[in-house]
Every structure is written in structure tokens, then in C-alpha cells.
What we know:
By secondary structure, the chain is α+β, with helices and mostly antiparallel strands. Helix content is about 20%, strand content about 30%. The chain contains two helices and seven strands; from the N terminus they run H-E-E-E-E-E-E-E-H. The strands form two sheets. A four-stranded antiparallel sheet has the order 1-2-7-6, with no helix packed on it. It has a three-stranded antiparallel sheet with strand order 3-4-5, with no helix packed on it. Strand 1 (about 30-35) and strand 2 form a beta hairpin. The longest helix has 17 residues, at about 10-25. It is elongated and about 90 Å long.
Amino acid sequence: MATRFDPFQEFDRLFAQVASAERAAATMPMDLYRSGDHYVLHVDLPGADPGTIDVNVEDRTLTIRAQRTPRTEQDVQWLAKERPVGTYARQLTVGRGLALDAISATYADGVLTLSIPVAEEAKPRRIEVQHAGDANQITAEARADA
């Protein structure tokens, strides 16, 4: 049985492992749920500089950006440096029926929380149905008063 030796196979495997770890670490994990007439979005941004957090909405796209700056200690010998630095960004396309002009945002303990209210026109509402008998009675009462 012949075995094929590829000297770059191990290098490719290690590179893929490192690249996928960097991609996973540079993402913004999030939770999204609806609570009453609001959607709540929690985005993990551990170590992000609070002044760099930017949330904006353009058309139907919600964009979240934040930055983690690298540590700048001098005269240190790094033994491990796995925490990603740089700019994080995530975009979400949001559906219609949300009050995008009324989004509120807070940042505490490394978690950005957005509260996105449902637009008034998208909220369920009850429509009262009048019965034909009620309409006749109202018309008859109006004639009696005239």
C-alpha cells in the first residue's frame, strides 16, 4: 500500500484551525427575543472600548460596530496572545413593522443591549364589529331625536 506524503498538509490544517479560531473570536455572539411589544438584542462585546461602540440604522440595515484596542505594555514577553483586537462589525437586516427611530441602547458588563419597539401600525389591534341590528337601532334613535 502506497502512502502519499504532502509536506504542506499539516501546515494547511494548522492554518485553517487558526483562521477559523480568529473568525469565531472576532464575531459578535448575540441573543434576540421578543418581549411584549419590543424585540431585545443582546450582543457580547467583551473588552470593547465603550466610546467606540456605534449603532446605526440605514434603510432596513442595523449596523453595530465596536473596537477593542491592543494592550501596549512595554518590556513584556507575551506567552499567549489569543484575544482578538481591532474593529468588530455586524449587520442585520431588519423587517418592516419596527420603530427603528425609537431604538434604545445600553452597554454594561461587556454586553450591548438594544431594545427595538414594534411600530404602532404593526401592533395587533382589536376592531369592533357592529351588528346590523345595532346599526338600525342607532338610526332609529337618531330619527326619534330629530
